[in-house]
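agent> Task received from the user: take the single chain below, predict its 3D structure, and emit structure tokens. No templates, no multimer pairing.
agent> Plan: (1) validate residues, (2) run structure prediction, (3) serialize to tokens, (4) report one or two observations.
agent> Step 1 OK, no nonstandard residues flagged.
tool_call: predict_structure(input=
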Amino acid sequence: VAREVPDFLKPYVKQGIEDWQPAFEAAGFSNAIIGKYAPSEEEDPDWDPEDARISSIRWLPADIKNAFGPHVHDPRTGEILEADVRMYHNVMTLVRDWYFVQAGAVDERAQKLPLPDDLMGELVRFVVAHEVGHSLGFPHNFKASNSYTVEQLRDPEWTRRNGTAPSIMDYARFNYVAQPGDGAALLPGVGPYDFFATEWGYRQFAPDADEKAELEKLVKKQIDEPMYRFGGGFGDPSSQTEDLSSDAVEATQLGLANLRRIAGFIVEATCNEGEDYDLLENMYNELWGQWNREMGHVANLVAGVEQVNLFYGDAEKRYFPVSSDRQREAVAFLLEHALGEPDPAMVSENIVARLSATGVADRVAAAQGRVLRSLLDARRIDRMAELAQRNEDSYSISEFMGDLRDGIFRELAQLPPASVSLYRRNLQRAFVEALAGVIENPEPDSDYPAFARAELNSIRAMLASARQDDESDATLSVHLRDLTARITEALDADD
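)
tool_result: status=success, residues=495
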């Protein structure tokens, strides 16, 4: 623990190093990794963290919100020779922001900023343990957190024994699933997968042992126990960053409940007499950032394909499309919670009237636009087309587009049409413009432009029907005519 580490954090940094001791003990090593405090200049004037014989935790005076754990290894053998974890000072701001929006509803210590020193110490310890894991040779494992259920994440005993994710090397952050009164742990630690990976990578075998057979025996644990699996890849909803649990919909439902709670006290948590609103604005941005992350977890179920890396003979296949019912559930959830009217708590006058005269509609449009663009991403639609070709029971592009249309334009389902709020008008425009963009720059080898064109025609027909009864609402009338003009322009240009 280098000299420049803040004194109040040194015990936590030391503990973050030694959090790996139990994993190495399970792999057959005693005192494999020990944290020590660097000697003072008086004790050892020649001590230098740049000495290649010294592995250290450095503290860097920079406003970068990050930390990293590199190492130097011998390319001939893979042996790790030396490591220096780099902690930027502003990593404390990063973990403060994460913890406030993910665990603030449950941990009363986080309900008034700044965080107390003991809590900040725990958060820094978490970062140190993660970065030390990298220095020990362990990569990120984004699949780990997918193996725990929502029920387990809300269980005090389970989370005490197993942490909030099987691996400290996942980007699982903090337990946003836990609800007030659950008593569940909120921070991850070196978990079951990390013990498994340490044994795989470090265990020594007797000279007469069959090392390959022993390692095969170890890795077969992955067949029946998902918490020992490793993964990460585009389109795999079981290997996402910043997520928790095997059920993204239920986890997000609970996460949104916590965001509403935090929105209820965010002003009191961030504001002090005689001070400005900068901290409130920062944490309000973080609140929406967490909203976006959680909605993204659900969106990735749509046309998602889960990858399970098992050896030949241990499984019939590696890739498993998300079931059509689960995809429909995800879309229905997003239409209600992400692409509906904004949650009143998230746009409360108690918050927004302190930050700007206007701009709430733009903020909501930006957040909803991210979700919509994710759902309409060309790679997702192309996966959906291929999955439909290979599986008759798949969630088809036409059904998906129909569900989006019905949800985004639900006000037009009744005649005369219901009033459409500014938030909803912005969303409807965004949907039309996204589809118009697809046919404006069509991919030559994709079904997407054809479906986008068909969808625009369906929306135009819906608008034509609604316009016959829209004269009592001038704003709605103008909006429907504008959408019709946009669609016609896009389709005419396509012709």
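agent> Step 4: summary for the user.
The chain has two domains: 7-245, 323-494.
agent> Done.
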